[in-house]
Amino acid sequence: KALADKLVALLRSGAPYGAKDFACRQLGILGTADEVPALAAFLADEKLSHMSRYALERIPCRAACEALRQALSKTKGSVLVGVINSLGNRRDAAAVADLARLLRDPYAAVADAAAAALGKIGPAAVPVLEQALDSAALPIRPALADGCLLAADQLAAEGKSAPATAIYDRLRKVELPRALRIAAVRGAILARQ
Questions:
Q1: Structure confidence by residue, pLDDT tens digits, 161-177
Q2: Quick one: which of 12, 106, 127, 173 has the fewest CB in 10 Å?
Q3: What is the pTM of this model?
Q4: How far apart are CA 185 and CA 187, in angstroms?
Q5: 27 CB contacts (<8 Å, ≥6 apart)?
Q6: How far apart are CA 126 and CA 148, in angstroms?
Q7: Nearest to 121, CA basis, from 94, 156, 157
């Protein structure tokens, strides 16, 4: 706790970015919910956003997920893409509604990242992904399909072959690039054993 307090003090000081980067890395190892606000303060900072997200992804508490969700409305561009990726890595099911809105973002990288994050979140996000797949323009369909494949693979790995097979079969019937349709066929075959 004493070391974490010193690292937080370093983050809040006028220390150079290299020192703050180091503090974020260390808080990723020993940080708790108490250090989340100090890390969250850098989520919109282009230089330190990556390392603050690195730390928040590893702190096992709800406050870290909440901080990342709040950053969705405070960031843009590549920083926003990073926050979306972190929510996906944490598999934060509470972020599904926020990520669903980002599927319609005009910046293609944001929409693609949202689809991938929803896929990592897994079963809780499948209805959103499938609904978006029905109405999505062709450019974003591959990202949505990839998200569906991630979720189906997770279901299959958990032994839930029926819902996984349903997703794979649905993807086989959607207009997608050939590689994604082949991945869906492969998944359907493996899920059916």
A1: 999 999 999 999 888 89
A2: 106
A3: 0.88
A4: 5
A5: 4, 7, 8, 35, 38, 39, 55, 59
A6: 6
A7: 94
